[in-house]
Each structure stands twice: as structure tokens, then as C-alpha cells.
Structure to design on (518 residues):
């Protein structure tokens, strides 16, 4: 299987913060969503992948090449957008488009014009006059129109109003139709990730706490309401991520849901009231609070 | 795209971003040269002072805007996301700043050379004037390299002030040197061993500053 991204045993210390033994792979053509709270290490991970930071130890391979040593070659095929990136306020979007067009042979002016119209941007306008949403869209235009093989998007929809967010997600969905293109994108908004990602990784405190394909995540997790009494065995069951008593019910969240799990609960005297699927956000919060790998 | 072409593109990019402000400084310098050229004592001294101030300010402007402000305004992250290595960006910044500084510097130095050679000002002062100009260039190079390494606005200001404080003593001491003082008011341009020694020391200071900065830059592990 060809990999777009492969990290093994990656460590990076930044003052008090550290990434610990990060191991992660993203197959070519896949979309991975990276979920984590502020300071979880998402941006550091992205910077390692772009070659902006050198790992203290471990290996970082992107599109089959070691980073940051091969960064010039690799960045020809990467589109990296981050909340930290700003364009030149005194220059027009056209000036930026011309700059990018000179650097990337794959620059597609027709597609750029299409995105200009779709994002409702004026190429002649200086970036200093753009709103935050327009700046984000301008950056994404500069990335999408050069057809990168790998997109690394660090919080691309943060701070966008609902209309701009829908436009960006719509353009992103179009880009994702290309099955050769791989995407790693981080977001606070788990709804975006749930909508677009093939696989999901949770990062917390500089560690990967969970990583799996989306369907498995959503299939394995359930919120189960029961009646009965909490016994000591409940807390020892490795399949249970959280237990909360809210009389007369007991709420159990599990990452190991299947029929045998329910059978086990009934067998121990609990009456099942309801079984509900969990949203990704709820799964993330439960995972982080549990602080362990499910 | 070759590395050399990419670096050239980064230099042109910086030039385009800051060319309007630079044009303003150059216009000010042309005005200062015009004042000196009038030959009237008050205008000449005002022009010379303006020239010196503008040359110092243009150096500070180049470092401040293309290096420190770029980092502060987060446009550096945009540049680093392009297919460039950190060393490409370093060379691009170094060369762009030197080019931005060299334009007004060449104008001022060339204007001063023409004035010394074409007016009643003694030709012998040319060596002293060129050594002073070279001191300004070496100070700028040292400040630039220091700013690249420390990436701090405060330290950069301190460094520039410290170097500029040395300008007056430098001009005075060089004018007192045995191999320079006797010729300053003469009609002959004399590059004595002492003058050549000062020039070599200035060139060495520039080379050491750039060499040391390149070495430190190569050892960096984080580039934002």
C-alpha cells in the first residue's frame, strides 16, 4: 500500500510541550481528519510534515520521501494551509496568483478563475482589504489551483462565518473527488471531519490517543441507557469508556459495541432502555476524558 | 525550478513588496544630493546630514520590514510553505536586503564620489569618504546578519544603535591615521597601506558576519 504520510516514533520537544512517539500513516487517496484541543500538537504535527520543523527523533516520510531533507521536492506536491499563514497585505490576489503560477508548473489558471468566481473574490483587490473569510478562501484558491497531490489543512474552517465555511467545504469536497489526492486536515469542528474524512485520528497532549477509519469509529461507539445498579465489574470492563449514574438511569459509553456487549450487560442484570449512536464530538470528548487508547 | 531561480524569485518578491517605500527613500536621497550640490554651506551641511540619516534609516527599514515584520505578520509561513528550503529563504532574505540597501547606497556613494572629484572638495578626501561608506555597509551587513539570527525587534534595534554609535568615533579615528590624515586635504587619491588595511578589515567583518550567520542558519531545527 502506497502511503502519503508515514510517521514512526516521532518526538518533538517545544519548551513545555512535546509530541511523544507519534506513529501515523495515511494511505494515498485517503482523507484523514485530525481532532484535538488547542495545544494537542496538531499544528506541530503539520509543521513536521511540511518540513518547517525537524523532529528530535523518529522518521517523517511524505509522499515516500524523508522530511525535512526532501522538502523542496515534496513541497512541489503539497498544499499547506494553516491559520498561521498570512498573505501580503499590500499586494493583490492577482500578484499572489502570478507568484504561485511561476513556481508551480501545475498551476491551473482556468480553475483559479473558476474558484475566484465561486469564492466571490476579486483578483485585483489587495489582501489588506479582505475579511478573514476572504483571506482563507484566497489562500485555499492559491493551493487548490496548483492541484497538489497532498493537502495539509490546519484548521481551514476556523473563524469562518457559516456561508464562507459552506463555500470552503464545498470546494474541498470537489477537490476530494480526485481519488489520487490525499488530505490531512485538522479541525475543532468535528462535524466537518465527520462529513469529509475517511479516517479519524485523535491527538491529545502530544500523543495519538485513537486512530481508525470513520465507519469503525462510529460503529464501535454507542451510548447505552440502562436501569439497574452499578456494580464493581462495570468499572473494570475494558470496553466501557465512561459510566454516569443519573437516577433512575445508568449511562454507559462504549467503544466496543456489538450484540455480545449488550448481552453481557443484560447477563449482569442491567435492563437496556436505549442504544444510541454517538456523534464524533462526543466520542472525542469521552476519549480525551478517559485519557487512554480505546 | 532550480535553487538559483527560486532564490532569485524570492529576491524579486521582496523587491516588489517594498519598492514603493524604497522609491520614497531614494527621492529623499536625490534631494539631499541636490542640496549638497548647491555649494552653499548651510544647504551642503543639511544635505550631508539628511543623506547620512536616510542611509541609516533605509538599512533599518529593510531589516525591519522584510525580515522582522514578515515574521510578525506571518507571511514567512506562506513563503516557507512553498517549495523552498530554509537555506533558500535565508539566501533570498540576505540577498534581497543587500540589494535593497545597495540601491540607495550606490546612489549616495556614487554621488559623493562625483562630488569630490568634480567640485572644489579635495580629491584626497575620497579615501576617507569611501572607508566611511564601507563602514556603513559593514554595519548594515552585521545588523542584518544579527537580525536573521536573533529574530528579535528589540535586539535588532539595540544592535543598530550600537553600531551607529561607533560611526562618529570611526570617522574621527580613521581621519587621524598616519596613512590617511596627511592626504585628506590634498589633491591626490592615495590608497596607503593603512587605508587598505582598514578596507580589508571592513570586508573581513562582512565576510565573517555572513559566514557565521550561514553556519548558524544551517543548524536551526525550527524555521518559523
Amino acid at each position: 500500500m502506497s502511503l502519503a504520510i508515514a510517521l514512526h516514533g516521532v518526538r518533538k520537544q517545544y519548551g513545555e510541550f512535546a509530541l511523544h512517539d507519534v506513529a501515523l500513516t495515511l494511505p494515498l487517496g485517503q482523507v484523514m481528519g485530525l481532532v484535538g484541543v488547542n495545544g494537542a500538537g496538531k499544528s506541530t504535527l503539520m509543521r513536521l510534515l511540511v518540513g518547517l520543523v525537524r523532529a528530535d527523533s523518529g522518521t517523517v516520510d511524505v509522499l515516500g520521501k524523508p522530511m525535512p531533507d526532501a522538502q523542496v521536492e515534496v513541497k512541489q506536491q503539497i498544499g499547506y494551509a494553516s491559520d498561521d499563514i498570512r498573505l501580503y497585505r499590500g499586494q493583490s490576489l492577482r500578484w499572489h496568483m502570478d507568484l504561485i503560477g511561476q513556481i508551480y508548473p501545475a498551476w491551473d489558471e482556468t480553475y483559479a478563475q473558476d474558484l475566484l468566481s465561486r469564492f466571490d473574490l476579486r483578483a485585483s483587490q489587495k489582501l489588506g482589504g479582505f475579511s478573514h473569510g476572504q483571506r482563507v478562501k484566497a489562500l485555499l484558491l492559491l493551493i487548490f489551483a496548483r492541484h497538489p497531490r497532498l493537502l495539509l489543512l490546519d484548521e481551514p474552517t476556523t473563524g469562518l462565518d457559516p456561508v464562507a465555511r459552506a463555500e470552503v467545504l464545498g470546494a474541498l469536497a470537489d477537490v476530494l473527488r480526485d481519488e489520487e489526492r490525499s488530505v490531512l486536515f485538522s479541525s475543532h469542528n468535528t462535524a466537518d471531519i465527520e462529513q469529509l474524512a475517511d479516517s479519524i485520528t485523535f491527538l491529545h497532549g502530544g500523543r495519538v490517543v485513537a486512530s481508525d477509519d470513520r465507519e469503525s469509529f462510529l460503529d464501535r461507539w454507542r451510548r447505552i441507557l440502562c436501569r439497574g445498579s452499578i456494580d464493581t465489574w462495570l468499572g473494570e470492563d475494558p470496553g466501557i469508556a465512561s459510566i454516569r449514574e443519573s437516577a433512575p438511569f445508568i449511562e454507559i459509553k462504549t467503544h466496543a459495541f456489538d450484540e455480545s456487549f449488550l448481552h453481557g450487560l443484560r447477563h449482569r442484570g442491567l435492563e437496556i432502555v436505549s442504544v444510541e449512536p454517538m456523534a464524533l464530538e462526543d466520542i472525542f470528548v469521552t476519549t480525551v476524558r478517559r485519557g487512554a487508547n480505546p | 525550478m532550480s535553487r538559483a531561480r527560486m532564490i532569485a524569485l524570492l529576491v524579486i518578491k521582496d523587491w516588489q513588496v517594498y519598492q514603493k517605500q524604497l522609491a520614497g527613500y531614494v527621492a529623499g536621497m536625490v534631494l539631499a544630493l541636490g542640496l549638497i550640490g548647491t555649494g552653499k554651506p548651510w544647504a551642503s551641511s543639511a544635505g550631508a546630514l539628511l543623506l547620512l540619516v536616510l542611509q541609516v534609516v533605509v538599512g533599518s527599514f529593510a531589516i525591519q520590514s522584510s525580515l522582522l515584520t514578515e515574521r510578525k505578520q506571518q507571511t514567512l509561513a506562506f513563503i516557507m510553505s512553498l517549495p523552498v528550503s530554509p537555506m533558500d529563504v535565508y539566501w533570498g532574505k540576505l540577498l534581497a536586503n543587500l540589494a535593497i540597501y545597495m540601491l540607495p547606497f550606490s546612489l549616495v556613494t556614487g554621488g559623493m564620489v562625483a562630488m569630490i572629484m568634480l567640485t572644489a572638495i579635495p580629491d584626497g578626501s575620497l579615501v576617507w569618504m569611501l572607508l566611511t561608506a564601507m563602514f556603513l555597509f559593514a554595519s548594515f551587513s552585521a545588523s542584518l546578519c544579527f537580525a536573521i539570527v536573533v529574530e528579535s525587534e528589540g535586539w535588532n534595534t539595540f544592535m543598530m544603535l550600537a553600531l551607529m554609535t561607533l560611526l562618529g568615533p570611526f570617522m574621527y579615528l580613521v581621519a587621524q591615521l598616519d596613512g590617511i590624515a596627511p592626504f585628506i586635504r590634498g589633491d591626490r587619491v592615495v590608497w596607503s597601506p593603512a587605508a587598505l588595511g582598514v578596507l580589508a578589515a571592513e570586508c573581513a567583518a562582512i565576510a565573517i558576519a555572513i559566514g557565521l550567520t550561514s553556519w548558524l542558519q544551517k543548524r536551526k531545527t525550527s524555521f518559523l
Residues 3-37 of chain B form the longest helix (35 residues). The radius of gyration of chain B is 19 Å. The interface with chain A takes residues 1, 3, 6, 9, 13, 16-17, 73-75, 77-78, 80-85, 88, 221-224 of chain B (CB under 8 Å).
